[in-house]
Write a structure and sequence with these properties.
29% strand; alpha+beta; Double Stranded RNA Binding Domain; 4 strands; 121 residues; single chain
Length: 121
């Protein structure tokens, strides 16, 4: 996973980079190698804001958190993002496994909408 860091009114230290890399490593297992991540750390007066964006294919997931400490904000943002990724994977697998109501096969083994001929009974 390619990770980009941006610091707005703050310096992105190695400590923050290591913390973000550790959290994104867990997410990387779920989203795959082709995903990219963008970590934005912002300091506004007493508020520290962490925004983490993961993009995979045409889909992107964003998580924002705000705290008095940057490490807390970054950990919370990564935890929220991990939950979003898990929820999205579950949603995708459920959609793939369960057909729509109109596509459920009939009890006799024939698909709905097929016409029985006189030879079949």
């Amino acid at each position: 996973m390619v990770i980009e860091y941006t610091g707005r009114q703050t310096v992105v230290t190695q400590k923050y980079k290591d913390l973000a890399a550790a959290g994104l490593k867990r997410i990387d297992k779920m989203v795959g190698e082709r995903a990219t991540a963008h970590v934005v750390l912002t300091a506004v007066k007493y508020r520290m804001i962490a925004e983490v964006t993961v993009t995979q294919g045409g889909q992107s997931m964003v998580s924002n958190c705000e705290s008095a400490e940057m490490t807390t904000a970054l950990r919370d943002a990564l935890a929220k993002l991990e939950q979003k990724v898990i929820r999205q994977r579950q949603r995708t697998s459920t959609i793939k496994r369960h057909p729509r109501a109109g596509e459920i096969p009939a009890e006799d083994g024939k698909l709905p909408g097929t016409v029985a001929t006189a030879e079949e009974g």
